[in-house]
Amino acid sequence: MSRTASLERVTGETAIEISLNLDGCGQSKIATGIGFFDHMLILFSKHGLFDLTVAAKGDIYVDGHHTVEDTGIVLGQALAQALGDKAGIKRYGTAFVPMDEALAMVSLDISGRPFLVFDATLPNEQVGQFDSELTEEFLRALSVHAGLTLHVKLLSGKNTHHSIEAIFKALGRALDEATRHDDRINGVMSTKGML
User: What range does the domain containing 44 cover?
Assistant: First the structure.
């Protein structure tokens, strides 16, 4: 069964097209108009071993908020669609990723119950043209639209670039673990019989 999705969202502020293959090899083609955000999505794809294409056009003359948040929305929807009924997946994933002085932990549950805990102090307000606070906005949009319980904790980090990079890499690795099939699982990983 193909675990892929292709979605588009067009509003008065953004136009986002995303294709996702959960069983890829980490190839990506990313163009959002925000260089640092592109870099983070490429890392997410590479470390999650997802094939990911993102074409986003937004009102970045205002700022990056709408583009980053709407990309999170569409990526979350694509993830939910690609997972289908979630039968056979491990459901939970946790990853610790170091990036020089930074250390990030991401732990998640593909639960159908969106919840974000974001515990990270990012020392600089901007990296390139990317507002650091948009890291949390992206993760919230992803969590809500994919149905993830998502915990993100920055355990150490003085360099904002390193800190955000560690978070995105850990997110990819945790999602890779949670979306993997396990032949021992009959149906979904829940005593309720559904996620």
Answer: 4-179
Q: How many domains does the chain have?
A: 1
In a domain, 95, yes or no: yes
Q: Could you tell me the end-to-end alpha-carbon distance of the chain, in angstroms, rounded to an integer?
A: 19
Distance CA 126, CA 110 (A): 30
What digits encode the pLDDT tens for the residues 145-183?
Answer: 999 999 999 999 999 999 999 999 999 999 999 999 999
Rounded Cα–Cα distance for residues 98 and 173 (Å): 12
**What's the distance, CA 47 to chain centroid?**
11
Residue 163 CA, chain-centre distance (Å), reads 15
DSSP 84-126: TT-TTB--EEEEEEEETTEEEEEEEE--S--EEEEE---SSSE
- Predicted confidence at residue 32, as pLDDT, reads 98
Task: Give tens-digit pLDDT for 27-38.
Answer: 999 999 999 999
